[in-house]
Amino acid sequence: MKYLFVLVLSLFTYASAVAKPSDFPAPPSGYSWVSCSETKSAFLKPDGWFFKEERKGSGTWGYFISKENIEKAGSFITGLSVNVIKDVPSKAHASAPDYAAAFIDEAAQTHKVVAAPWSKTLGPFHQFGVRTLVADPKGGDYITHTLAIGNEQTGTVYVLIFEAPVASWDAAWKVGEPILKKFSIDTDM
User: Fold this and answer.
1) What are 102-142's pLDDT values in tens digits?
2) Which of 19, 38, 72, 164 has the fewest other C-beta atoms within 10 Å?
3) CATH code at 164?
4) How do strand 79-85 and strand 157-165 relate by DSSP bridges?
5) Measured torsion, CA atoms of residues 21, 23, 29, 35, in degrees rounded to the nearest 10
6) Number of folded domains in the chain?
């Protein structure tokens, strides 16, 4: 039997080949699970928000959970971007945990750090994070809460970035924090 980690909060057993929203713990009020079958992952989507997925080349997937409809607007202002990158050691010549750590280091060096970088390990997952303020003279400054997670067993890296304009960050983070505290990724991916 393999384990599916709901990072930060809990751990539960997962035995089927493709998870369905009903396989996960009950979502918090105002959220539902979005299952991403190709990457054996799932994320919370706030009610009324939008979900979009993309395949980027060989072995990279992008998922977006956003307040704005990306299909209509072409981008979003408030929301979560998730990139799942398989086979990082052969692509980047670094272990998945080292790549994840370097990603966070780069974010911390490139932008103003709002919350100091942190790290933790849960099973094969090495998680690194930082919160930054990104200066954007054209679109307006915004805050990012970034997690980079490297699976040492599979060589997969997950990059999760929740972002919102500085002016609306506090309200946006009340919605975004549960998304980044309760999500699932499979140890075999």
Assistant:
1) 999 999 999 999 999 999 999 999 999 999 999 999 989 99
2) 72
3) 3.40.1000.10
4) antiparallel
5) -30
6) 1
Distance CA 91, CA 68 (A): 33
- Separation of alpha carbons 45 and 177, rounded Å: 12
Strand order in the sheet with 157-165: 50-55, 60-66, 79-85, 157-165, 142-151, 125-134, 112-122
pLDDT > 70? residue 53: yes
CB 143 within 8 A of CB 99: no
Nearest to 165 by CA among 157, 176, 156: 176
40 burial class (0-12, 13-18, 19+ CB within 10 angstroms)? buried
Size (the chain), residues: 189
Reading the block at residue 167, the tokens are: 């002016």
Residues 6 or more apart in contact with residue 119 via CB below 8 angstroms: 101, 126, 127, 128, 129
Residues 6+ apart with CB under 8 A from 22: none
Amino acid at 102: A
Q: Which domain holds residue 143?
A: 2-186
Residue type for position 125 = F
CA angle centred on 24, ends 158 and 161, rounded to 5°: 25
> pTM here?
0.88
